[in-house]
Amino acid sequence: MYYPGMTCMVTQRCFERKMKIKPCLRVNLLILYCLLVAKLKYKIDIYSFCFMSNHFHLVLNDREGKLGDFMAWFNSQAAKSLNKFLKRKGIVWEHIPYRRQIIHTKEDLLEKIVYTIVNPVAAYLVSRIEEWPGLVSLPKDIGKKEYKAKKPQFYFKKDGRTPEETVGFVTVPECFLDEMNEQEYRNLIGSKVRSRIRDINREAQKKGRKFLGRKKVLSQSRNSVPKSPDKLTEIRPQLICSDVKLRIKILRIIKQFSDDYRSARQALLQGKVKVKFPFGTYKLKKVIGILCEHDPPWELQMLH
Fold first, then answer.
1. Which of the chain's termini has less CB crowding within 10 Å, N or C?
2. Of 65, 66, 48, nearest to 11 (Cα)?
3. Concatenated DSSP letters for 238-288?
4. 301 in Cβ contact with 280 (< 8 Å)
5. Where are the alpha helices (DSSP H) in the chain?
6. How far apart are CA 174 and CA 304, in angstroms?
7. Taking a C-beta distance cutoff of 8 angstroms, is the pair 189, 114 a contact?
8. In this structure, how many other beta carbons lie within 10 angstroms of the beta carbon of residue 280?
């Protein structure tokens, strides 16, 4: 289910949890280039990002309902350019599709933005977010820093369709600008990030747990895997919504979408021509141009 204006958190893991995107200057730059090009190409507003050694998180707004195209382009180009740089062949991302969780309230959006930023600290890799050697959107840079990346010449053609240099910003969500300016928003995110990091450091000290540290992160093999157990079989919720009543309503909408989509697809397979698919249908609309409902249920319009 995809629709214009959808706010969500996206998580993508590397194949077999290996450290394929372990940070270094060249890897950071090629990933940033692919991310910024895809962001502009598919009109995605990015609210926060963090690239760990074996997975990444994005919190974003899909302005035109093109998240599927955005992720397909980014994953493909990042994987191919990474393989070219590392002089290897093979799979980079896990075979399970990226995890997309739709966000429906400002409180949940704020929580997931902070979660994304503090991820390297929460994983006990570094004690301060500024020590993380990979790509992460710092609170002070939101809506302010102009991220720049030049085309990786070892992979992209010099006279190809992608730009020689691309730029972009981490966006301040519009839903917060009704009650504060951009600087106040940066202060809010910064305060919550600092508070969460203090809690993690206190917890680490209490447990006698040490942070791995920047040097050891950089020295890890790209074929190494975390010692923590794999959570591949855990439930993968489609929705982030702390408001219980609203969550129930939206889950009913998602279920109704699945039922309506299944019925419409069955009718199409039976040879019916003028079949209307539910709002949020993505792939069939793109590939064969099927008819779709135009307006979303009001619950899906709450957060922009």
1. C
2. 48
3. SEE---HHHHHHHHHHHHHHHHHHHHHHHHHHTT-SSPEEPTT--HHHHHH
4. no
5. 25-41, 67-86, 106-117, 119-122, 182-207, 214-219, 244-269, 283-288
6. 7
7. yes
8. 22
Rounded to whole angstroms, the Cα distance separating 188 from 198 reads 16
> Tokens 């998240």 appear where?
67
How do 55-62 and 6-13 pair as beta strands?
antiparallel
- All structural domains of the chain: 6-238 (3.30.70.1290), 244-295 (no CATH)
**Tens digits of residue pLDDT in 142-190:** 999 999 999 988 888 888 889 999 999 999 999 999 899 999 999 999 9
Q: Between 250 and 129, where is the model more confident?
A: 129
Amino acid, res. 207: K
Mean pLDDT of the chain: 90
Q: Are 261 and 278 in contact (CB under 8 A)?
A: yes
Residues 6 or more apart whose CB falls under 8 angstroms from that of 96 comprise: 13, 232
Closest CA to 73 of 26, 96, 40, 99: 40
pLDDT computed for residue 304 by the predictor: 44
